[in-house]
Specification:
Structural class: mainly alpha
Number of helices: 11
Radius of gyration: 26 Å
Family: Belongs to the PER33/POM33 family.
Largest sheet: none
Oligomer: single chain
Distance between the termini: 81 Å
Pfam family, one: TMEM33_Pom33
InterPro entries: PER33/POM33_regulator, TMEM33/Pom33
Low-confidence stretches: 1-14, 19-29
Order of helices and strands: HHHHHHHHHHH
Membrane topology: Multi-pass membrane protein
Subcellular location: Membrane
Shape: globular
Length: about 270
């Protein structure tokens, strides 16, 4: 009888050991992900704020759960401002109260979008204002998500991996679209004044943001889009079908914009 009890207990003990091993294997990726995020707290916080920006923008455009759409608009810009502040902390960690430091600070793309969030956070809700923060948040958050998937295993979440890969293939086109959106937001801020939805100060503040984007050392897309728009405008203006008054108006506008364009510095 004792032998029979021992034989019955051995399979039960083996089964318990196997269950414990399976549970340990099941929890191991989660523990590794938590450890990875704990070791890179700022990057994990950036991922969280970017995801919050993406979700808030979606809820502003598609009010699935109802609520005040303006609150989602503000949340998206606030979380983008938090993302930009964290990135500035990474890029320029040592604060100094002098002219050189602030000159270096405003060369950073993160400072540009911190300024951008402050411009639009109290304005009338504009979908165009959320497009760049949504797309930047999406591009950067999927890059971090891919790192988390790699920790989980090379074959984990294949559907999500395929979506991330397709999105990253379109990164250059997305960045060009963001630059185009930034440019056409300038006349939109002027139109908002005449519609009674914007302040007189907004176009001047946004011009400063756009000039910072044009002079950016790390983002050449704004300059490239301005050049392409100029070439396109000149091409249509030189066509025989274009009226003379319109041709003169286009060339005067091009000359005026060229005078407003800031000096650029080479990328480092």
């Amino acid at each position: 009888m004792a032998d029979t009890d021992d034989n019955q207990q051995q399979p039960e003990e083996q089964q318990n050991e196997q269950n414990q091993q399976q549970e340990a294997q099941g929890h191991q990726p989660n523990q590794t992900i938590i450890g990875f995020m704990s070791a890179n707290k700022v990057d994990a916080a950036l991922w969280g704020t970017r995801m919050f920006t993406v979700i808030s923008t979606i809820l502003f455009i598609i009010p699935i759960f109802g609520g005040n759409s303006y609150s989602f608009y503000q949340r998206a810009l606030i979380s983008n401002a938090a993302t930009s502040a964290l990135r500035l902390h990474q890029r320029v960690p040592h604060f100094q109260l002098n002219r050189e430091f602030f000159s270096m600070l405003f060369m950073e793309d993160s400072a540009h979008y911190l300024f951008f969030s402050l411009i639009f956070i109290t304005s009338y809700p504009m979908t165009m204002a959320l497009v760049p923060v949504f797309l930047f948040g999406l591009l950067h958050s999927v890059s971090y998500t891919k790192k988390l998937l790699d920790i989980m295993g090379p074959n984990s979440q294949q559907l999500l991996r395929n979506l991330i890969a397709k999105l990253q293939l379109q990164q250059a086109n997305i960045l060009r679209f963001i630059a185009c959106n930034e440019i056409f937001l300038m006349p939109a801020t002027v139109i908002m004044i005449f519609s009674g939805s914007g302040s007189l100060l907004m176009p001047f503040l946004y011009y400063r943001f756009l000039s910072l984007r044009y002079a950016s050392r790390r983002n050449p897309y704004s300059r490239a889009l301005f050049y392409e728009l100029r070439v396109t405008a000149e091409h249509f203006s030189n066509m025989p079908q274009c009226p003379a008054f319109l041709r003169n108006l286009v060339f005067k506008a091009i000359g005026y914009i060229n005078r407003l364009a800031p000096a650029t510095t080479p990328a480092q």
